[in-house]
Amino acid sequence: MRIVVVGGGPAGLLFSILMKRADASHDVTVLERNKADDTFGFGVVFSDAALDSIADVDKPVHDAITKSFFHWDDIHIHFKGDVLKSTGHGFSGLSRQVLLNILQRRAGEMGVRQVFQADVGDLAPYRDADLILAADGANSTIRAKYADAFKPTIDWRPNRFVWLGTTFPFTAFTFYFKENEHGLWRVHAYRYDREHSTFIVETTESAWRKAGLENASEDATIAFCEKLFAKELAGHRLLKNRSLWRSFPIIRCGAWRHGNIALAGDSAHTAHFSIGSGTKLAMEDAIALRDALLENRDVSAALEAYEKVRKPQVESYQRAAQVSLQWFEDTERYAGLEPIQFGFSLLTRSLRVSHENLRKRDPAYVASIDRWFAKKDPAPPPLFTPYKLRGLELENRVVVSPMCQYSAEDGTPDDWHLVHLGSRAMGGAGLVFTEMTDVSREGRISPGCTGMYKPEHAAAWRRIVDFVHARSRAKIGLQLAHAGRKASTRLAWEGMDEPLADGNWPIVSASPIPWFPHSQVPREMTRADMDKVRDDFARAARMGEECGFDILELHFAHGYLLSSFITPLSNTRKDAYGGSLENRMRFPLEVFDAVRAAWPDAKPISVRISATDWVPEGIGPADAVEVARMLKSHGCDIIDVSAGQTVPHSKPVYGRQFQTPFAERIRIEAGIPTMTVGNISSYADVNSILAAGRADLCVLARAHLWNPYWTRHAARELGHPLPWPDPYSSLDRYTPRFT
Ligand SMILES: Cc1cc2nc3c(=O)[nH]c(=O)nc-3n(C[C@H](O)[C@H](O)[C@H](O)COP(=O)(O)OP(=O)(O)OC[C@H]3O[C@@H](n4cnc5c(N)ncnc54)[C@H](O)[C@@H]3O)c2cc1C
Ligand SMILES: Cc1cc2nc3c(=O)[nH]c(=O)nc-3n(C[C@H](O)[C@H](O)[C@H](O)COP(=O)(O)O)c2cc1C
After folding, report:
1. Among candidate residues 532, 526, 612, the one with its CA nearest the CA of residue 566
2. Which end of the chain is more exposed for a tag (fewer CB within 10 A), N or C?
3. Is the Cβ atom of 42 under 6 angstroms away from ligand 1?
4. How many A from CA of 7 to the centre of ligand 1?
5. Residue 147 to residue 153: CA distance in whole angstroms
6. DSSP H helical segments within 634-676, as ranges?
């Protein structure tokens, strides 16, 4: 096979070595525009796992790397005069120059032809090669030339950073956070050989401009950073090597192959330096491409397999890198956290490291976090730390999310609801919410929805509340709502949000905009309608109190009536209830006030909101902070932060804990407790969210449908078993086995 590799960086060189290893008869040429010993950057980072994968494919390269690297286990975080230390992380740093020399030498031994100072602008001379690998880095000429095929996108991030070196011998991966008159400066520093460390300085664009670094030369940058970090550098110098301030480009490609050309490394993708090195990803690409070529004799099939396997892996890594880089873009937001929580938030930022991983790596560190969180010693895991809101005391931080059952008759809950809610309360959650329960018959989503508008409803709910209180340690909350323009629709499994086949009732909303084009057109609410809905909510709250509910939640989310006022996408009113956010919040706040007045002072009220419409013209996370501030000023105790479902054409970005960043932002910026919901599935996630201060309570919906005993099972795994109800006490001596 004739292989031409454009670019002699880590991706191109390792791939060449591996192909020659696979078959010495392959004719492999690497074309590199620099000289053999030209390089930029300082140290590259490998995790222990990344080094193991290199050992698997080429022992000599692995051994040469391990002879030259500097290994560390610890991470030190310097913040507000404190140093947080965590161990067990297992990383190595290596000079990029040394790495390239190792790879070049090994490529030479294996018979790879290496041509230096060969700047490839045109692929025509290599068209007869069986395979062309475009490993020509982030500014890839080949990717640009065939942009129509590769479909690259480049997202330039707002922060500024500069790669510097230093002679300071860091003993750990070190983060500094230092404030001066211009803003907050972040440093990511790690040692890569006996005498040298990488020292990356990062800050916001605004601090960078205020510091006058816009046109700074390398020497001016060094002078500025040496002065700012004089204490930390303790007399050591900073070193330059093409050390210009940059913005980070997140590069993604729609396709990684075009004919016999493949992309690998930075030409195909980048991932922010705060999550690990691009070098590791580039070398993993080389290994994946080699594997695909070994498994598929035909180049076209191999490139297809390479893209199919490797692209999703890299995209998943890029998603984690995105969260990580955003943490560094938003560090100012976390600056008010106590140092111990700031450090935990930093370590768990990408969701790849959880409370549980850290517990295994560094139990002493996690024990100190747990003690700080629970304010007691010994401390339970954060999940089992009690929580208090007004007079409500929850035994733990797990909440069963409201979930419509579409199983009621004219609003009356029945045995299904008793068993559904009762079993989840027995399952150990601290708080169980009823499904969305409507304040009027016409405010129901469907004919199967529960209500709180007839005396029979109060009696039926009281039976459920009494069961939960008598037979479990859980508290129970009532979610109150009016479905607005999403009312008069079918049971979920017969067509979500679809109008009823017959028997539709008239519906109201902020504005006369139907949900789907074929949905019923709601009537724009008049003031008289508003008075009625407000009074219905207050009456339902009073009925809820008679039933003994412990907390109320008002539904201001998901496109239902009050949400339809908040989002401009469904509120085009010209009166005092439309226009600005303040106006759009006017009616929802009237409802809130009426409910607050009707509900006992000792009991809390939560409000569920959609923190974003997932539509550019709709509301976004910054508006959600404003909404939360307004609610807080009216006496709301906690915000249940959901997202979307406000218009049918929204484009949500799903993923693990995908709504948690909104809860975190509201909690910190509006200074109000939050509940987070959405794709939270493991107890490790819950402990991480709580300890990092991303929310005060974790709300799980489908996880509880799957497993009503979720909290009890988490308790057992965490070594913090909950007492079983007496009839189940034989379980104290039972060892569960499932497979
Ligand atoms: C300024 C800077 C400093 C960095 N420092 C570090 C660091 O300290 N640690 C770290 O882990 N990562 C660092 N990175 C990121 C890291 O270099 C990359 O993620 C990693 O090297 C990717 O490997 P690669 O083989 O895909 O590309 P590269 O290492 O970029 O290699 C691409 C090669 O292609 C060559 N090339 C480009 N165009 C042509 C052409 N038309 N013809 C011939 N040859 C061509 C280039 O000269 C280069 O040698 C740095 C990046 C930048 C921009
Ligand atoms: C069957 C079902 C019914 C739901 N009903 C409601 C509801 O009545 N009120 C509400 O606010 N959210 C409702 N939701 C949304 C959930 O409360 C929750 O926000 C969502 O499922 C995301 O959480 P999860 O990823 O843990 O499932 C429902 C979800 C499901 C799966």
Report:
1. 612
2. C
3. yes
4. 9
5. 9
6. 660-669
* pLDDT band at residue 475 using 50, 70 and 90 as cut-offs: very high
Q: Distance between CA 717 and CA 600 in Å, rounded? A: 38
Q: Is the C-beta atom of 10 inside 6 A of ligand 1?
A: yes
Cβ of 464: how many Cβ atoms within 10 Å? 25
Is the distance from the beta carbon of residue 480 to the nearest atom of ligand 2 less than 6 Å? no
Does the structure show a pLDDT above 80 at 40? no
Nearest-CA residue for ligand 1 atom 19 is 278
Instruction: Tell me the pLDDT of the chain averaged across its residues.
Output: 96
Nearest-angstrom CA–CA distance, 407 and 486: 18
Are 123 and 166 contacting, i.e. CB atoms less than 8 angstroms apart?
A: no
User: What is the average per-residue pLDDT within 39-60?
Assistant: 88
CA of 283 to the centre of ligand 2 (A): 42
CA 103 to CA 93: how far, in whole Å?
16
Residue 536 has pLDDT above 80, yes or no: yes
Q: Is the pLDDT of residue 738 over 90?
A: no
The ligand whose atoms approach the alpha carbon of 641 most closely is 2
Ligand nearest to the CA of 686: 2
- In one-letter notation, the amino acid at residue 192 is Y
pLDDT one-digit tens code per residue, 127-153: 899 999 999 999 999 999 999 999 999
Residue 686 in tokens? 């819950």
Report the pLDDT value the prediction gives residue 657, as an integer from 0 to 100: 92
Cα-based distances in Å from 454 to 440, 512, 538: 9, 28, 14
d(CA 189, CA 176): 8
Contact present, 17 and 110 (Cβ < 8 Å): yes
Residue 277 has pLDDT above 80, yes or no: no
pLDDT at 307 over 90: yes
DSSP state of 126: G
DSSP E strands in 39-182: the ranges are 43-47, 70-72, 75-79, 82-86, 91-95, 113-116, 131-134, 152-166, 173-180
pLDDT higher than 80, residue 179: yes
Handedness of CA 492, 495, 500, 501 (dihedral sign): negative
State residue 264's pLDDT score. Answer: 98
C-alpha 82/C-alpha 715 separation (Å) is: 33
- Supply 75's token pair: 């991470």
Structure tokens at 365: 């560190």
24 φ/ψ angles, rounded to the nearest 5 degrees? -65, -15
* pLDDT single digits (tens) 194-215: 889 999 999 999 999 999 999 9
Distance CA 350, CA 383 (A): 20
The closest residue, in CA terms, to atom 15 on ligand 2 is: 403
**378 preceded by cis ω (within 30°)?**
yes
Cα 67–Cα 71–Cα 77 angle in degrees, nearest 5: 160
Q: What is the 3-state secondary structure (H, E, C) of 326-385?
A: HHHHCHHHHCCCCHHHHHHHHHCCCCCCCHHHHHHHCHHHHHHHHHHHHCCCCCCCHHHC
Ligand of minimum distance to the alpha carbon of 244: 1
Pocket-testing residue among 4, 17, 31, 33, ligand 1, by greatest number of atoms within 8 A of Cβ:
33
- Tell me the HSE value of 366 on the side-chain side, using a 13 A CA sphere: 22
Strand pairing class (674-677; 70-72): unpaired
Question: Is the CB of residue 321 below 6 angstroms from any atom belonging to ligand 1?
Answer: no
Buried b (16+ CB within 10 A) or exposed e, 402-414: bbbbbbbeebebe
The position carrying tokens 């605004």 is: 206
Assign 3-class secondary structure to 396-449: CCEEECCCCCCCCECEECCHHHHHHHHHHHHCCCCEEEEEEEECCHHHCCCCCC
Q: Is the CB of 202 under 6 A from ligand 1?
A: no
Q: Are 307 and 294 in contact (CB under 8 A)?
A: no
Decide: 197 in ligand 2 pocket, CB within 6 A: no
Summarize the confidence of residues 574-586 as an average pLDDT: 98
Residues in the chain: 739
Q: Which amino acid is at 53?
A: S
